């Protein structure tokens, strides 16, 4: 499979061209009378290549939207749509199939052809040569048996990969098909699914998070909600989901925040039951069909209505759609049939995500959706959400994810919501330009105000100039005040200096490990880490990444082989588990002093300040802190021992984008070795110069090997697995 990332700048320019052409064709009167959201919707239809498949269908779809402007006349509205289409085609902005046949569109998230080619090539290479000279027949037969067994295992593995790839493709195709069908069903209805809430405020306890803010979510747009840790992003999503903000009731809103409860229910059934209407219809159909024939005859019309509604909601494909989504998120067929209680919290979080993707709410809100996913699932989710046709709000610290998925950015800053068109990279440039222009305007106005004030002070009491002075005073009073640029202070993180050690620092020689000796998880480990190491440890969830970190740190003892550690070697290991163990009723300062008794409060506060936990943050109880702030508390604690090697398990989870950048800088300045489990593309690219991956067949002990290539090469390999 291959990922195709959207070119946001070209998409944005195409949208502008389409809108300008529509305005030109319909005229100035239309621009004034037609609601801008309708123009945006029509623009979006032409911008989406998958919708431009049939001229007549487009005319039928868009005519109702212009009917009010056409004085209620359907024929006039249809003629306006035809003119718009003709202009767009004549200007070469869009291509419309004039014959009614569908324009083919490459979905691009996967390429099964390349999978088939690679499999055929592998099978062809493995065919035995008919001209082999037989020297030792028994030995040859034994070798051939082993060879054929390995060949069958490889082919079976490739077939499993093809099935998984095919399921992921089916999920993406089903999504596009369903969204196209829904748009067709919605023709002629103008009930808005946009959200516009003005002048609302939001607080947490005594702390104001948003003051007189405006919330604008246009249906079908994909928003990245960004802002520093603790500014209120998650709180805002919770208030939207609970409708504590004034939002109309005709919208379905879902905030994916918690994992599903672990029960006896299978994973696939847990996803299917999320479609409440389907479940209700199936139960009612089952109840009515269980009635005796003479009674059931009285309900024939109701049963027919149930079947019609089941057909409308595409209920007959529900199981295949749910299975395909789960496959994309990493669930094998066997895992889908297991009870949810058999899975960890991270996997149950994936089930929650699958439920949300399956039911497709009008507004879907995802808070750090990639935190519990491995690389393949992240890439699949990215491709899936690119094709998402409803409103999407994502909180994420992954720049590349935001760049690929988002059409807009909402910046929560200084207790306001600021809106930017485009993805995260566009936001960065636009905001930089906006702040620079604002600063110039502010400086110019301050200079002007100073000049006017000097005149007023000089001539206020001068009889001849008093009238002019009063005029200048009124000029000052009427002047619109340009606000001073109040940008977020720079986030800084810093590790203490490390005492150097002479190599070898840490080595694994032919090490194997299993929680039970007869059931090994890892084997043939021959690895080494020194003070200069910058290693990214990658692999699917559950493959053994955390186990290897614990084995290296000495928390687990090897089953066989030798682990050689320098006598003065000090480790620091970070994991989300440590964050969960913080005493929520205590402050970061008290948590620190409890971990390091005997440390003076002054020293502790100074060290907390190195990780951005100064002032009030150091004294607030941990339960009032954001996820990213809690992570910084743990990073601060583990760094206090001046470790020689950092073992980091997803260190960027829950951090905001600016803090991730600060972490990157701190790790690059750190003088010891780093072994890091992460799928954060920017973090790995800017910190690590080596990639270790897990190699081995399913259900077999794994080796850890060095990958020959960079992160982009590894990502391509994973997506093609």
From TrEMBL:
Ranges for domain ABC transporter: 195-439, 506-720
Kindly name one Pfam family recorded for this protein: ABC_tran
Single GO biological process annotation from the record: sorocarp morphogenesis
Coiled-coil residues are 148-178
This protein's source sits in the domain of life called Eukaryota
Question: Could you cite one Gene Ontology molecular function of this protein?
Answer: ATP binding
Write out the entry's keywords from A to Z.
ATP-binding, Coiled coil, Nucleotide-binding, Repeat
Q: What PANTHER family does the record tag this protein with?
A: ATP-BINDING CASSETTE SUB-FAMILY F MEMBER 3, ATP-BINDING TRANSPORT PROTEIN-RELATED
Q: What is this protein called?
A: ABC transporter-related protein
Source species of the chain: Cavenderia fasciculata
Q: Which gene encodes it?
A: abcF1
């Amino acid at each position: 499979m291959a990922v195709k990332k959207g070119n946001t700048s070209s998409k944005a320019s195409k949208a502008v061209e389409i809108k300008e052409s529509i305005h030109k064709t319909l005229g100035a009167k239309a621009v004034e009378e037609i609601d801008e959201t309708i123009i945006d919707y029509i623009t979006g239809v032409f911008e989406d290549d998958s919708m431009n498949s049939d001229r007549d269908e487009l005319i039928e779809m868009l005519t109702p939207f212009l009917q009010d402007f056409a004085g209620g006349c359907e024929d006039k509205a249809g003629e306006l749509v035809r003119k718009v289409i003709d202009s767009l085609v004549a200007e070469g902005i869009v291509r419309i199939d004039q014959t009614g046949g569908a324009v083919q569109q490459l979905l691009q998230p996967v390429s099964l052809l390349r999978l088939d080619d690679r499999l055929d090539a592998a099978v062809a290479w493995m065919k035995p040569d008919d001209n082999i000279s037989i020297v030792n027949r028994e030995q040859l037969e034994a070798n051939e048996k082993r060879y054929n067994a390995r060949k069958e295992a490889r082919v079976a593995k490739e077939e499993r990969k093809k099935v998984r790839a095919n399921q992921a493709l089916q999920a993406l195709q089903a999504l596009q098909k369903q969204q196209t069908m829904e748009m067709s069903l919605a023709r002629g209805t103008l009930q808005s699914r946009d959200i516009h809430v003005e002048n609302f405020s939001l607080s947490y306890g005594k702390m104001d998070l948003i003051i007189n803010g405006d919330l604008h979510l246009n249906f079908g747009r994909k928003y990245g909600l960004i802002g520093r840790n603790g500014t209120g992003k998650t709180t805002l999503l919770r208030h939207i989901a609970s409708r504590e903000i004034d939002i109309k009731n005709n919208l379905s809103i879902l905030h994916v925040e918690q994992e599903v409860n672990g029960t006896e229910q299978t994973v696939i059934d847990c996803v299917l039951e999320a479609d409440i209407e389907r479940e209700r219809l199936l139960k009612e159909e089952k109840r009515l069909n269980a009635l005796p024939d003479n009674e059931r005859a009285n309900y024939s019309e109701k049963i027919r209505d149930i079947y019609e509604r089941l057909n409308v909601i595409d209920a007959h494909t529900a199981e295949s759609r749910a299975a395909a989504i789960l496959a994309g998120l990493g669930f094998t067929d066997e895992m889908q049939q297991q009870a949810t209680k058999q899975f960890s919290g991270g996997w149950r979080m994936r089930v929650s995500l699958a439920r949300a993707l399956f039911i497709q709410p009008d507004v879907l809100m995802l808070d750090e959706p990639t935190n519990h996913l491995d690389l393949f699932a992240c890439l699949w989710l990215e491709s899936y959400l690119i094709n998402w046709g409803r409103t999407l709000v994502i909180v994420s610290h992954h720049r590349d994810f935001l760049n690929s998925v988002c059409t807009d950015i909402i910046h929560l800053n200084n207790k306001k919501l600021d809106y930017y068109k485009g993805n995260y990279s566009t936001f960065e440039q636009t905001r930089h330009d906006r702040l620079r222009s604002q600063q110039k305007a502010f400086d110019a106005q301050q200079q002007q105000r100073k000049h006017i004030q000097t005149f007023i002070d000089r001539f206020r009491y001068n009889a001849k100039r008093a009238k002019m002075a009063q005029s200048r005073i009124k000029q000052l009073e009427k002047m619109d005040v340009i606000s001073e640029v109040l940008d977020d202070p720079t986030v800084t993180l810093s590790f203490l200096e490390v005492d150097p050690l002479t190599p070898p620092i840490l080595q694994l020689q032919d090490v194997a490990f299993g929680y039970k000796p007869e059931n090994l998880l890892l084997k043939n480990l021959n690895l080494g880490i020194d003070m200069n190491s910058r290693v990214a440890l990658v692999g699917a969830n559950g493959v053994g990444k955390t186990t290897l970190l614990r084995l290296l740190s000495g928390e687990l003892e090897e089953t066989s082989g030798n682990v050689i550690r320098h006598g003065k070697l000090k480790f620091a290991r970070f994991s989300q588990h440590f964050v969960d163990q913080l005493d929520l009723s205590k402050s970061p300062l008290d948590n620190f002093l409890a971990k390091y008794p005997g440390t003076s409060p002054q020293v502790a506060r100074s060290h907390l300040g190195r990780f951005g936990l100064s002032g009030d943050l150091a004294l607030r109880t941990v339960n009032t802190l954001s996820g990213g702030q809690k992570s910084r508390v743990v990073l601060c604690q583990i760094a206090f021992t001046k470790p020689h090697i950092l073992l980091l398990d997803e260190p960027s989870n829950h951090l905001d984008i600016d803090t991730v950048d600060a972490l990157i800088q701190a790790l690059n300045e750190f003088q010891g070795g780093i072994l890091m489990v992460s799928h954060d593309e920017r973090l790995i690219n800017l910190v690590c110069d080596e990639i270790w991956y897990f190699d081995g067949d399913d259900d077999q002990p794994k080796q850890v090997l060095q990958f020959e290539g960079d992160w982009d090469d590894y990502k391509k390999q994973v997506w093609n697995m």
